[in-house]
Amino acid sequence: MKWLRWLPSILWMALIFYLSSRTGDEINTILPFFQKYLPFIQDFNWGHFVSYFVLAMTFDFAFNQKSFQWRYKLIIVLLCTLYGATDEIHQFYVGGRMMDWYDLRNDCIGATLWVLLIKIPYFQQAWKKLS
User: Fold this and answer.
1) Which of 66, 88, 121, 125 has the highest CB neighbour number within 10 Å of its CB?
2) SS3 annotation, the chain
3) Cα–Cα distance, 131 to 92 (Å, whole number)
């Protein structure tokens, strides 16, 4: 049943894929909802940080105890970056969307932030208890 640990990653990637499938007009209709509660948000660039931070977290969960090794932390960032690249290619074919290297950079930064945060002893201990 070790494969069940990968279910959160698969579901989160499906959500990213779904949101990336929305056209530019559809995405622009969602933005005012977020701005109502978070008025400082001007665009969805923050979404890349958050989405790939969470994706890295789900990969960390999937790797279980192995994920405490630096080698697996690097693999997590690489997997997130590769998925981010495929996501940008996917967006190229969606109306009103485009490939953006800055989005890919933000995806990588979000994943890296998780990896660095979880190496801090306090957070690492809490994560061990949760996962």
Assistant:
1) 88
2) CHHHHHHHHHHHHHHHHHHHCCCHHHHHHHHHHHHHHCCCCCCCHHHHHHHHHHHHHHHHHHHHHHHHCHHHHHHHHHHHHHHHHHHHHHHHCCCCCCCCHHHHHHHHHHHHHHHHHCCCHHHHHHHHHHC
3) 36
Sign of the CA dihedral running 70, 71, 72, 73: positive
- Digit-coded pLDDT (tens) for 73-84: 999 999 999 999
Torsion of CA 118, 68, 10, 56, to 10 degrees: 30
With CA atoms as reference, report the closest residue to 111 among 61, 77, 71. Answer: 77
Q: How confident is the model at residue 115 (pLDDT cuts 50, 70, 90)?
A: very high
- Token output for 15: 């959500």
Mean pLDDT (whole number) for 83-97: 91
Cα separations (Å) of 117 from 11, 20, 50, 78?
Answer: 23, 27, 13, 17
